[in-house]
Each structure stands twice: as structure tokens, then as C-alpha cells.
Amino acid sequence: MNGAALLIRLQAIGIISEATLTYSFQSIARYWRTTEPEELEVAEERGKKEQACRFERLCYRALAEGLISLSKAAELLRKPIHQVEAGLEGPSCVYSDYC
After folding, report:
1. How many beta carbons lie within 10 A of that of residue 76, not counting itself?
2. Within 13 Å of residue 53, how many CA atoms lie on the same side as its CB?
3. At what angle are helices 81-88 and 70-77 packed, to 10 degrees?
4. Cα–Cα distances in Å, from 91 out to 26, 83, 87?
5. From 20, 30, 45, 94, which residue has the greatest number of CB atoms within 10 Å?
6. The pTM is what?
């Protein structure tokens, strides 16, 4: 999404006022018409820095609370059963000083 579209969307949902939008286009955003702001990440690396883990956490929680079976958790997580069992025990102690 480009900067101009973001500003217009912010104004449309009421986060910024019409005056702020006008000021932004008259001052900061006027240079965007010639050059867009630099991208935060290279397109090939987008989304690789952080891995979503909510689904995995929810699966382990459901397993710990007895809502699903071990085999169902392994199926949902697409992992072998022995890895899911190890995950229930928590992370391995890589740093023995902290465990």
C-alpha cells in the first residue's frame, strides 16, 4: 500500500481529520508524487523475520487441557507425535544457565 492511500484510509476511518490530510498532502506527501518512500523490507524477505505461532500455542493449550488428543494435535501441527510430546515439555535447555 502506498503512503497516499494510507493517509486517505486513515482519514476515511476517522483517525486523522480532513485538515491533517490536507496538510499532509501539502507538505510531507507532495514529494511522494515523484518518489515513493523506501520499502521497509525487500519483497523476498517479507514475513520471514517473524513466524506466527498463535495456532501452535492454541494447539498445545488445547492438548494440555485435554480438549484434543495427541494424535489430533500432531495432525493439526503437521509434526510427528514425538515432536509434539517434546513440545509439551517446553523448549529444550539451550542455555543451561537460564533453565
Report:
1. 16
2. 8
3. 100
4. 53, 11, 7
5. 20
6. 0.46
Average pLDDT estimate for 23-52? 72
The torsion angle over the Cα atoms of residues 33, 34, 35 and 37, rounded to 10 degrees, is: -30
Taking the C-alpha atoms of residue 9 and residue 89, their distance in angstroms, rounded to an integer, is 46
91 three-class SS: coil
Q: Give residue 81's Cα distance to chain centre.
A: 27
C-alpha cell at 18: 480532513
Query: Closest by alpha carbon to 59, among 92, 89, 83, 84?
Result: 84
Distances, alpha carbon 94 to alpha carbons 49, 63, 97, in Å: 21, 24, 9
Residue reference for cell 484510509: 9
Each residue of 54-95: pLDDT tens digit? 999 999 999 999 999 999 999 999 999 999 999 888 766 544
